[in-house]
Each structure stands twice: as C-alpha cells, then as structure tokens.
Amino acid sequence: ANGYYSNQLMTLKEALKNSVNSVSAFLMKQMGDTEPVRGLVNNMGIDSSARRPDGEYRIPKQPAICLGAADLTVLEMTGAYSTFANNGVYGKPYVIKKIEDKNGRVIYNALPEERVALPPNANYVLLDMLKYNVKGAPGINSLKSEVGGKTGTTNDYSDGWFMGVTPRLVVGTWV
C-alpha cells in the first residue's frame, strides 16, 4: 500500500516508521469497516466486546482505532505483541507459572492458552515492518538478536509507548 507524504510516494513501511497517521487512516477507510481490525485485536488477546464504565466499547467501533484510540494496559499490549514473536500465535500472558509446596509438590500450574491470531505469512510482513521501524536506531545495530518495535504517543503527549519484539522476548514500556 502506498500513500502520499510531502508530495512523495511512500511505502507502508515508511509510513509506519514515521507514524504518518494519514496513511493508517486511508487504509482504514479502504477497509470500509472496523470489524476486521476489532476481530484481529480480539484474536490477539484484547477483548473487543468489553465496555468501559461509561458504556462505550474499550476497542471503539470508530476508524480512529487504527491510530491507537483504545485505552489499553501494558500487559494487554505486550501480550498482543507477543503474537508477532510467536509466528502469529497469541499466548495469554500469566504472572504465576507454577507454585510448589516445601516438598516440591506442584499445587498450582498455569495452563497456557494459545490460539492462532494471524496467518504466518501476514505475521511475517508485520514483523518485517516492526524490524524496519527500529533499523538505524541508536544501540539497535549492536544487539545480537533481531529486534522490532513501535513507538506511540497520545495527542497531548501524556502517554508514551514503546513495544519491543525479539524472537524470544517482548517488552512493553509506558510512560
């Protein structure tokens, strides 16, 4: 997909890297409906049917969802981004994996919840775009692992995000 930025043709990779929201808005408009995105978000562990205290959906049914209009937690975002590191398979995050008593008997074991959220070929493209986003960033080239990521901010800059993805680790930060 291509868009225009400063009167030049721009790839979707460049638009994502430079946070050119007009390209995201154009793609959302081309889709004609928010439900495919809301369905994908749901597959990636964020309940798109959940409502806020004011009755509105946490994942709005408005095109602005492509610009980050949803109010999500770092755990939700990190869990969703883990889909990219897992070749399109969402794995529900959990805090406690196992509890043993003093004799080593397991008294609790978390049951992993996984589901396919994205086809591997689509996941590959998204992961490739996330890697392109951080290409050339200070310190990234010295890392031994492949790294991808995306930044995000709110309109008034009260929230700043970075989601980082490697083949074995996903990190979400919010300030």
Descriptive notes:
Helix content is 30%, strand content 22%. It has five helices and nine strands. It has helices at 12-17, 21-31, 35-43, 74-85, 120-134; strands at residues 2-5, 8-11, 89-91, 98-100, 106-109, 114-116, 148-153, 160-165, 170-174. A hairpin with a 2-residue loop joins β1 and β2. It is globular, with a radius of gyration of 18 Å. The chain starts with a strand and ends with a strand.
List the uncertain runs: none
Amount of beta strand: 15-25%
The amount of helix comes to 25-40%
DSSP strand count: 9
Strand order of the largest sheet: 7-8-9
Helix and strand layout, with pairings?
Layout: E1 2-5, E2 8-11, H1 12-17, H2 21-31, H3 35-43, H4 74-85, E3 89-91, E4 98-100, E5 106-109, E6 114-116, H5 120-134, E7 148-153, E8 160-165, E9 170-174
Antiparallel strand pairs: 1-2, 3-6, 4-5, 7-8, 8-9
